[in-house]
Structure formats: structure tokens, C-alpha cells
Design brief:
Elements lengths: L11 H5 L10 H21 L3 H4 L3 E14 H6 L5 E3 L7 E11 L1 E6 L4 E6 L4 E14 L4 E3 L2 E3 L4 E6 L2 E14 L4
Antiparallel strand pairs: 1-6, 1-10, 2-3, 3-6, 4-5, 6-7, 7-8, 9-10
């Protein structure tokens, strides 16, 4: 509050614009508050649903993935029980259930006999058959682990501590919670 040196007059009202009444609520303000309250109630009820009703149910899926033409040193690092990532960015997870290793077999055409022959691969190359298990969402065409689509023929990454390889899904089975 500023006082004038010449007079004992309070000039704070002059600065603030004079004597104006404080604003009060009117019908429009009450209507706006009512709409906000209704939106909050509807939002809280929608967001407070049980988890099963908002998210898609998951099923346990097992997939057999094949890693071909790979060094034995890489395949021996993959062991049952390993938690792996199915993508390069380490987001979508699965668990290794089983690992089977076999020498890579190459099918080639023999010019002399004019037939196809199966021969062992070049050098020490092996094929790994890795069975993985994951919780997946199911839609009409695919199973999804996070954003990774799981379906027969699709490529995935098998990435764990100390190894990373690209694999292709050969078989899939629903273990529980969905249609086979």
C-alpha cells in the first residue's frame, strides 16, 4: 500500500482499477465444472477396469526356430533356460526350452549323375534347432510377443548373453490358453 506524502490517502484502488466487485460463479462456470466432473468420472471408470478387459489375453506359445550354417561355438552358447530377446532392440523376450544341434546338410545337384545329393556342409557348419516359449497375444492372423510377429516362416532374432543369430520359425504350438 502506497501512501501519498501530502495526504493520508490510499491510492491502491487507483492502480488496480478502482472498486470492482470480485468475480463470482455464474451458471456457465457451474456447467463447465459439471462437464469436467462427468468426464473425470467416466475416465476413471474406464481406466479402472480389471486388466483382462482392457488388454488382449495372452497365450503361451512354443516355436521351433532354425539357425543354419552357423559355427558350433555360437550354437553351444545357447542353453535351455536362457532368457533371450527376439529383436535387435532388446525388447521382446522369450525363454529357450530346448536346443538340438546337427551338422548342416547341403542338398546340391550332381552334374555327373544328374541327381540331387545331400552332403555335409562346408567346414564345421552346424544347424541349431532352438525351441522357445513366450507369452503372446493372438489376433486373426498372427501371434505377437510385444511387437514381434511370430508365425511359421517368419525371421526372428535369438539374442542372449554372448550370442546373437537370425533364425526362422519352422513350427509353432499353443501350449495353453488358446486354439491350436
Amino acid at each position: 500500500m502506497k501512501k501519498n506524502n501530502n495526504e493520508n490517502v490510499d491510492d491502491s484502488n487507483i492502480i488496480s482499477g478502482g472498486d470492482k466487485p470480485k468475480p463470482s460463479f455464474n451458471i456457465i462456470d457451474i456447467a463447465i465444472l459439471g462437464v469436467i466432473a462427468i468426464v473425470l468420472v467416466i475416465g476413471i471408470r474406464f481406466l479402472d477396469r480389471n486388466p483382462g478387459s482392457v488388454t488382449t489375453p495372452t497365450t503361451t506359445v512354443q516355436a521351433l526356430a532354425e539357425i543354419t550354417w552357423t559355427d558350433l561355438n555360437l550354437l553351444e552358447r545357447i542353453t535351455p533356460g536362457d532368457e533371450i530377446y527376439l529383436t535387435v532392440d532388446n525388447v521382446d523376450k522369450a525363454v529357450v526350452v530346448d536346443v538340438a544341434l546337427k551338422p548342416t546338410i547341403y542338398t546340391g545337384f550332381d552334374q555327373e549323375t544328374q541327381t540331387y545329393k545331400e552332403t555335409q556342409g562346408i567346414g564345421d557348419s552346424y544347424t541349431g534347432y532352438i525351441t522357445i516359449q513366450a507369452q503372446a497375444r493372438e489376433d486373426d492372423a498372427n501371434f505377437y510377443v510385444g511387437t514381434t510377429s511370430l508365425k511359421v516362416g517368419a525371421p526372428i532374432f535369438i539374442k542372449g548373453k554372448g550370442y546373437s543369430a537370425r533364425a526362422f520359425i519352422l513350427e509353432m504350438d499353443v501350449v495353453e490358453g488358446g486354439a491350436k
